[in-house]
Amino acid sequence: QNTQITGQVLSSSVVPGVVAEATIAFNQPVTPVGDTPVLARVNSINLSAAADASDNTPVVAAVVNSDGTPSPAPTLTNPPAGTTDFNKYEYTNDAGAQAIFTLPGADVTSGEIVFPFETRTGADEKIVSGVILTPTNASNTVYKLTMGAVSISDLQKVDFTMLMQADNSDVTGVVSSSLYAVSTATAVLSDIFVDDGDFIDTPSRDLVSDGANPPLITAENGDLEYALPGTATQCVGGSGNCLFRALNKPGAVDINANERMLSLVSPAAFYGTVKLTSYTVTSFPAGSASTIDTTTTVFDQQIAVSSTQDEADAMDVSGLTDTRGNFELFLTDPENQNLDDKSGNSLSSVFGAAATSTDNGRVNFDNNWTRGYKITGLNNNIGFRVDLAGFNLPANTANSYLKSITVDMNVIIAGQPQTGTMTLMVQ
After folding, report:
1. CA–CA distances in Å: residue 277 to residues 264, 265, 303
2. 8 Å CB contact between 71 and 234
């Protein structure tokens, strides 16, 4: 009786740029057949997958209104008189002359903007070179698979198929499986930063200028806010050109939710203990015209950090809260991680991870997520994030924000023990 050919990966090692190999056991003696008996593929993220109507991407009417307190606000005419250019706005500038403002990204015929604050993703397939399948026993039931490691990136999924024929019958079969690359990222303590995910460049925040109602998105986020040239005396009490928004996204609900996601972010995974010894809050007291208060509070709380259950079990941290860190994919547009998987499975094909996967050393992601973490210093936009919600630090408000934290860290990074005390400015 002919038996279907099956195979199982017994062991594997995929270290990008170093080694990519696996040992595979078959249920019967087999031999590779065909011109290309083994084919290995990887997928990389394609960030040029432009949005279109079929993606159900939000298309919004261009809302152009003066930002702040106009005194007075210039009158806008859209489209300008005598034109059908709905992406343009006519107004009167300080000199009394008629001027034209063109809204970036707006459609000429409708004035609408395809939601611009989103990173559309697809996946591009690449064939892995140098694939060799070699028997390692006399009965042809165990084979070693090797392939070129230089074409594989950190945490990438490698899919491979093998066309095999049974040695004792005319049965042929395709055996498929996947391997997963490890992260080769390294880091020292000074590479780790803390961010509250609020879309604001916290170190440059100015509560006096912000006043009692700081903007949800700061002016550095140029794609969200537009200025009308030549209107310095017409808006915002004459302090500067009128500012105009095309779209206010994310909204207050999103921002408030993200502010509670205070996190340590590292280019590489680490495990060990993190002790918070103090934190500093900057505040703008009610009724004050210009006074800024900075208050430092002594703190004494410690958590245990791990990326897998094995690491957690290996640490002697009885009595401490075990906080599980995860690799996460951060995409920026700008300072926003607004992610939309164009095909619905692009990121799974690249990293082989479900959107909610945890404790498996894989990359985690959520479709349509919105997080405001910076990506500076991260390898391929992948960061190891540790949620600090367990410390229950003060939430940001309109009049105050968490400025910095001081931590004692005793951790292992890429196999190397690292200890130290750091004061980290919240990003």
Report:
1. 15, 18, 12
2. yes
CB-based contacts of 54, cutoff 8 Å, min separation 6: none
Other C-beta atoms within 10 Å of 133: how many?
A: 18
- HEC readout, the chain: CCCCCCEEEEEEEEECCCEEEEEEEECCCEEECCCCCEEEEEEEEECCCCCCHHHCCCEEECCCEEECCCCCCCCCECCCCCCCCCCEEEEECCCCCEEEEECCCECCCCCEEECCCCEEEEEEEEECCCCEEEECCCCCCEEEEECCHHHCCCCCEEEEEEEEEECCCCCEEEEEEEEECCCCCCCCHHHCEEECCECCCHHHCCHHHHCCCCCCCCCCCHHHEEEECCCCCCCHHHCCCEEEECCCCCCHHHHHHHHCCCEEEECCCEEEEEEEEEEEEEECCCCCCCCCEEEEEEEEEEEEEECCHHHHHHCCCCCCEEEECEEEECCCCCCCEEEEECCCCHHHHHHCCCCCCCCCCCEECCCCCEEECCCCCCECCEEEEEECHHHCCCCCCCCEEEEEEEEEEEEEECCEEEEEEEEEEEC
Which residues are within 8 A (CB) of 52 and not within 5 positions of it... i.e. 6 or more apart? Answer: 114
338-352 burial: b if 16+ Cβ within 10 Å, else e: bbbbbeeebbbbbbb
Instruction: Give the model's confidence band at 368: pLDDT under 50 very low, under 70 low, under 90 confident, else very high.
Output: very low
The amino acid at 176: S
Whole-number Å distance between alpha carbons of 268 and 61: 42
- The one-letter code for the residue type at 121 is T
Length of the chain: 427
**In the prediction, which pLDDT does 140 show?**
97
What's the farthest any 2 CA atoms get from each other in the chain? Answer: 93
Calculate the CA dihedral of residues 215, 219, 222, 224 and round it to 10 degrees. Answer: 10
Mean pLDDT taken over the chain: 77
Q: What is the pTM of this model?
A: 0.72
Task: Report which residue type is found at 97.
Answer: A
Percent of the chain with pLDDT over 90: 38
Beta pairing, strands 88-92 & 98-102: antiparallel
Rounded to whole angstroms, what are the CA distances from 37 to 5, 75, 173, 186, 336? Answer: 14, 70, 11, 36, 44
